[in-house]
Design a protein that fits this description.
- The complex is a heterodimer.
- Chain A has ten helices and no strands.
- Chain A is mostly helical.
- Chain B folds into two domains: 220 residues, P-loop containing nucleotide triphosphate hydrolases (Rossmann fold, 3-Layer(aba) Sandwich); 75 residues, Alpha-Beta Plaits (2-Layer Sandwich).
- Helix content of chain B is 38%, strand content 25%.
- In chain B, the strands form three sheets. A six-stranded mixed beta sheet of chain B has the order 7-8-9-4-10-11, with helices on both faces. In chain B, strands 1, 2, 3, 5 and 6 form a five-stranded antiparallel beta sheet that branches.
- The chains are: A mainly alpha, B alpha/beta.
- The interface between A and B is medium-sized, with 29 and 31 residues.
Chain lengths: 256, 301
């Protein structure tokens, strides 16, 4: 129960914050661009929406743009902004004088970061659906998407991307709550995203967790070793960064 | 019975000299304990250690008779605190800020409006706390500290940034909490005149060491006994001859002499004696018995 109350408290704290607005805007950013592009080419809309692969096409388009750059950058910014709620308001000290164990404080904050990622995924998928449905609402001769909505494919695909995001989230969260200056986690994250763009097709690119989302689209590239299980690597990095973060947090001598 | 006891607290930042140097505090239950000291004396560091914000490396802390090291959460459940500048979330309203803490403390929701009334923030509506004035921010910090009806309040400079009216209001709030609900309060401040009107006990700290601890009344009495009167005269040699060894007078220089422990009647009597004997008296300077002068004397000792 204590953890539940703590999560509720953290949830109120993040409402109206920059991190929560960024989650909403970031989730709809790519779908809005895809939608505008579709609407600006109305001649192909009829055939596209009537296609029996329309959802797969929209899913691939949206995720391709999202996974390479926008998603990692969104996670970097959101994790930093989330930790900045305490730093900017000078409120770590108030939080650490509440009757909660340090483990509860750590876990509830991290749960909020994960819940925001889930919220981001949900909103992004709503955005994908809207890219298919909205043109049919605005243009009389454009049909609603002809393909049955592939729930299972969407769930599996999203779950994979979610898993690939976890190491990024845990490393960025580590940097964000341990370093007061928010430019450092953002700078490090940005550098690692750039490095991942270079390293994505390198055969040892899997050492860099920021490459995992992009690798989804390079499955047939001969330079990618099919023997490497990215999912295991992602889980391993996630556990490593989270445990490391927890140990550093618990052992901190000064708590605000 | 003491609500807070510290034994042999030491603390140093890195390899610097000790900022807390064997501090033994005893805060009696039901008291308002003023924790005084000049800037850099170690007041805030001590309060942070007491609240567990800085790891206590040497020494013991007992609050409500329990060791802080082994009962942190149980103890913190009954403590309200405001350390340094007030902590609140600038993007939330006053009520939302209190909601954040209400969920953790699991106190009644009605307490939110009650404490907002107490600190005079009940009509701030949808205004974000980040847009509050310094005084309002301070009040919100106090509201957060009071939210869960704590038995013990630890406040670091709670009247910082408040105008004179605000100071009086907060003082009244604290006095009422102490008298009506029996809440013990440990409060640090550099506004000594304000503390004099508020506290029942004082602890004076300098360079990390406690140089006085006891009731305010006892301190006042003790220091009054050491009261000195300095006389600025036209001729201190002649003045000494007139006093003829009475009152234990001592010559300071050609014009000044000092007499210890004179009451008001004696001051007027000595003055008349000197003037009638032809010694001009230009100035009679008694050190005051207010907390500020006592504090300055103690720190300077």
């Amino acid at each position: 129960m204590v953890i539940l109350h703590s999560i509720q408290s953290e949830w109120i704290k993040k409402s109206h914050s920059s991190a929560s607005w960024l989650t909403v805007f970031g989730a709809f950013f790519i779908p809005v661009i895809v939608l505008v592009r579709r609407i600006s080419d109305p001649h192909n809309l009829f055939a596209a929406n009537a296609s029996d692969k329309i959802w797969n096409i929209l899913y691939a388009q949206c995720w391709q743009y999202m996974s390479v750059f926008v998603l990692p950058m969104g996670i970097i910014l959101t994790a930093s902004l989330l930790a900045q709620i305490e730093f900017r308001n000078n409120s770590w000290k108030q939080l650490h004088t509440t009757p909660q164990s340090l483990t509860v404080v750590f876990v509830s904050k991290f749960c909020i970061a994960i819940m925001m990622l889930i919220q981001f995924f949900l909103l992004f998928n709503v955005g994908i659906v809207l890219t298919g449905v909205v043109p049919a609402l605005f243009f009389r001769d454009v049909p609603f998407p002809g393909q049955d909505f592939p729930f299972q494919d969407f769930v599996i695909g999203n779950a994979r991307f979610f898993l690939y995001c976890l190491p990024i989230l845990s490393l960025q969260y580590l940097l964000s709550i341990q370093v007061r200056n928010f430019m450092i986690p953002i700078g490090v994250g940005f550098a690692l995203v750039i490095a991942s763009l270079i390293a994505v097709s390198w055969k040892y690119g899997y050492f860099l967790p920021y490459t995992y989302c992009s690798k989804r689209f390079l499955q047939n590239d001969s330079r990618i070793d099919p023997e490497i299980n990215i999912k295991i690597w992602a889980i391993g990095y996630f556990v490593l960064f989270t445990v490391l973060n927890y140990i550093i947090y618990i052992r901190r001598k000064n708590r605000g | 019975m003491n609500i807070l006891e510290t034994n042999g607290l030491y603390h140093q930042y890195g390899r610097e000299e000790h900022v807390i140097n064997g501090l033994n505090l005893c805060v009696p239950q039901g008291s308002i304990y003023g924790f005084l000291g000049p800037n850099g004396a170690g007041k805030t560091t001590t309060l942070r250690i007491i609240l567990g914000l800085i790891k206590c490396e040497v020494g013991q802390i007992h609050i409500f008779g329990k060791s802080l090291a082994h009962n942190r959460e149980v103890i913190l459940k009954n403590i309200g605190s405001l350390i340094d500048s007030p902590s609140f979330y600038g993007h939330l309203t006053a009520a939302e800020n209190l909601q954040v803490f209400q969920r953790i403390y699991q106190c009644q929701r009605s307490r939110i409006n009650e404490v907002l009334e107490v600190v005079g923030l009940a009509r701030t509506g949808n205004k974000k706390a980040g847009r509050f004035s310094l005084g309002m921010k301070q009040r919100l910090g106090i509201a957060i500290a009071l939210l869960h009806n704590p038995r013990f309040l630890i406040l670091d400079e709670p009247t910082n940034g408040l105008d004179p009216n605000g100071m009086i209001e907060i003082r009244e709030v604290l006095l009422n909490l102490n008298r009506q609900q029996g809440i013990s309060i440990l409060v640090s401040s550099h506004i000594l005149a304000e503390m004099e009107k508020l506290v029942s006990h004082v602890g004076i700290v300098n360079k990390g060491q406690l140089i006085y601890e006891g009731s305010l009344g006892h301190l006042m009495n003790e220091r009054q006994q050491g009261l000195q009167t300095i006389w600025e005269t036209s001729d201190s040699v002649k003045a000494m001859e007139i006093l003829d060894g009475r009152y234990n007078a001592k010559k300071l220089d050609e014009s000044r002499l000092v007499i210890n422990e004179l009451n008001r009647l004696e001051v007027s009597f000595v003055n008349r004696n000197l003037v009638e004997a032809g010694v001009s008296v230009y100035e009679i300077n008694s050190n005051n018995k207010d907390l500020e002068s006592i504090f300055i004397n103690l720190i300077g000792d």
